[in-house]
Predict the structure.
Amino acid sequence: MQAVNISKEKYTRTLIVIAILIILPYLLSNQYYTHILVLSGIYVIMALGLNIVVGFAGLLDLGYIAFYAVGAYTCALFSTYFEVSFWLLLPLGGVLAAIFGILLGFPTLRVKGIYLATVTLGFGEIIRLVIRNWDSLTNGPKGIMGISHPHIFNFNLTSPVHFYYLILILGVATTFISYRLSKSPLGKFWIAIKDNEIAASVLGIDTVKMKLYAFAIGAFFAGVAGCFFASWQGFVAPISFTFLESIIVLCIVILGGMGSIVGSIISALILVILPELLRQFQLYRMLFFGLSLTFIMIYRSRRKIKAKEESFRLENDKIQKKEEISNIKEIFQTKNESAVKENIILEVEKISKNFGGLKALSNVNFKVRNLEILSIIGPNGAGKTTFFNCMSGIEKADQGRINFYEQRIIGNYGSLPAHKIAKLGISRTFQNTCLFESLSVLENVLIGTYIQQNKNQKENKKETLALELLNYVGLKEKSYERVNNLSYGHQRYLEIARALSVRPKLLLLDEPANGLNLHEKEILMNLLLDIREKLHVTIILIEHDMRVVMKISDHIVVLDHGERIAYGTPIEIQNNRLVQEAYLGRGKKVE
Amino acid sequence: MNEGFLLDIENLWVYYDRIAALKEVSLKVKKGEIVALLGANGAGKTTTLMSISRILNIEQGKINYKGTDIINFSPENIVSMGIRQIPERKKIFRYLKVEDNLLMGAYLEKNKIRIKHNLEKVYDLFPPLWERRNKLGDTLSGGEQQMLAIGMSLMSEVELLLLDEPSLGLAPKFVEETFQIIEEVNKKGTSILLVEQNAYMALEIAHRGYVLEAGKVKFEDRASDLLKNPAIKEAYLGG
Amino acid sequence: MFTQQIINGLTLGCIYALIALGYTLIFGIIRLINFAQGEMSMVGAYIAIGITILLSKYGLLSENLLLTLPLIFVITITGCSLLGILVELVAIRPIRNSPALDALITTLGISIILQNSFMLLFGSNNKVFPSIFFQDSLFIRNAQISYLQIFIIGLSIVSMIILHIFINKSKLGRSMKAVSEDKVLANLMGININSIIRNTFIIASTMAAISGIMLCMYYGVARYDMGFIPGIKAFTAAILGGIGNIPGAVLGGVLLGIIEGLCAGYISADYKDVFSFILLIIILIFKPQGLLGEKVSQE
């Protein structure tokens, strides 16, 4: 049982590190060194918090230090004005910072990328400037003095060693929380959003909500760190919360290898302790800092970033290979049983979409019956993928309605957002595979099972379902591989498994046979038929390969220049003159 | 070495990440020929063109052009040797004016008189471009964009034209026009390697054809014979 | 009061706009925020002051202002351009294909290196720029407008017009637009991408050099950290206008300068930045791609 050994080894290693940290102050027996350690502890907590925002959720935050300031000033003000106990202020500072985090998070509804980063920068500056200039409350640039140290009953924490143990406890706690988060569904959702926001949203992840969580939790950590800082120093001033401080914390996270908890901790320790050791070269400290940043980044660009295979392997030990396989077909059937065959489940009415002057879709109509396989064909650029995008809520249709099980999902008034459409039971794949590259094969499928909120379903049961889905598409042996190590064909099957993981009623497949060889296409066709027969899932398929289309479709919709030029059974379509001209070619030799 | 070939590709391997996109592809274009390169989406057609233009890294293999090994050439060198590629989707600069687009086509041409002469030649060939010369590329229709793309390639002396899906997104009327233009350009002495999903049309104007499947050459024949091949008919022409 | 604040704001806004143009040009061409842009401006100020010191040593400084002023500009621009080429070659080119955040950190690193090496080389005190140019002022309806302000605004406008003509009419300008839109297609036209990127850095450095001279003329002093605040403001301005968009950078810079001027005059000088940032956030919420930025489809 090698897997168990790895886990045990890791456990012992963690205990040893903690043990060393506990006796460290006695080994150093130097107040100044202990002081530096406390300081680096603060940065560890902040780095772990920012790592959640930047590393996990992929949101660049250039004003993170503002939350640290909120925590610090919460502590300073409540402590000096109302003499509130530190032990109350610690969570309060965190909570207030988290509230500010949510406030900052709201622009994410609309603002993205570098623009969002600028909003965070502005937010950080606003907080700092308000603190600096609100003399009557914060005493302006001079700062607030006389913040009381924490005390336990009548015992005052005063010496650096006391604070060292306090920050050690907080640091270990934040590390633990970070670790648990990274393994939790929420953590996987963040990584999914970072890897591919669109793919995440069509799986049913509410991306806006998840981003708000990231901002709030990240801010909470900084608030706690700030509160500790204020109480430790007994003094706060705006000078501690400049843009440069935000940048330093950001550098720590990026140098640590975004998203890596251990990396963040180690790089925090290095980036804080090293400059302090260089204190005698005070003047050269920042120059050294700048040089090392630049050189590390240039160096890093030169070598290929190594696959983080190890982290996947480690997950392996948690999942015991259970041979008893709960039947995935049962799970699907119980869910989709109510539907009667031949009932119309999807109505598409007059869907239109323009890009600039180009008509991508105009007045597209058709209906889909329960448990049929419907293919959409047409030349490249005919609007097929645009239709899928409109239907899954990624793009907004200009006009028209789509009803799914008699519920309006797209319409002039109140189209549903992508994640809600997904939750109704529509799931899709993409033309160019959009897998979550930072996650393992199994995790890609697990994410979908997390979304189906099924209270009585236990965590390990979800893993069983995910493994079974992988087995179903023939990828079980690859469960712990990195996505990028899969062949093209396997990536396509994985995407189908992921789409099935949310247990959809309707599956949209965008060119599933694209790039597959003949043999793989055979497997695919059987798979699709099986999904329909056994899992009771209706399928809409965009496909270029006529063999596949003609063999498995019940009906075919033909689009050309955004218009539906034909609808019918495969045989009808093959004999349709218009279709032959538009799609199969206008060769004079068409026989 | 066979002197008869303008372009001679042997045993080409190209990888994306770790996945082989081209597997021992060998392909030849004779002077004056139109060669069709067919295959399903993802079969490696565009990859082949991008490899010839030296945009993509080549893992293994040889590309000879007029007897010179061009594997280590930069894309600029390739253009200066008279090879031009017109890509599949983004074939013009949408935020440049039509005339500026054409001038970009003559980027390596230093002789101002020749540029002016070529410009007139292209405007003669495509009068709609003259009318819209001061408009942004973005405002052109699909057919006009195709004209502009071909016009850009004619702004310098081009001996081998690599055409990627010229019929893509064009109305049938324009597709026919485009193919006429391609034939005309070919008759004036330019050899053409034509990637097309519209297999009938491509094979009708081509001399020879190759069919790629999953990165490998599956068939190689005279165009007229490929048209008759039942396996191809089923796979790519829809039965 | 109003005219006065508008003029003060416009002067600063023009300087922001020049630096913002650097951000926007470089972002347009390689999708990278070059945070060292403000420091480039600081370097420009130091070079300008160095030349004035050298000139006054030989008693040439106030000899002929029509000669010395252009000389200062030419040498400063050359110096900054050389530095720009060096930075691009040594630090930017290797990280062009790195993850976006790694690249961002690199430019922050360059900015820290520049600041601190200048502090170590020349000390952390203020360097004085001799006040010999444009000392007089005009008075229009209680507003005092110095000739220096007129010079700064005038020269900024001229530089922007030249840049505009250059980008739209010259072959290099066209090529820059082409590379910024589609590198593969530009490559297929025979354009050497590296050389276009180098030239973009030269132009961005030129803009920074001009803004640096203006900053030290306007404030009369230069310091190793003088580029930081204008750099951040200009970055904000470029984002406000829609990064990658050239008129957007000018609009964003001027707008930011005027807002600051008006806030300082009518509300509170202490809170002027607070108001500009609040306005920035509000504008971005309503125009998530900046004022003139277009939504680029992500294909």
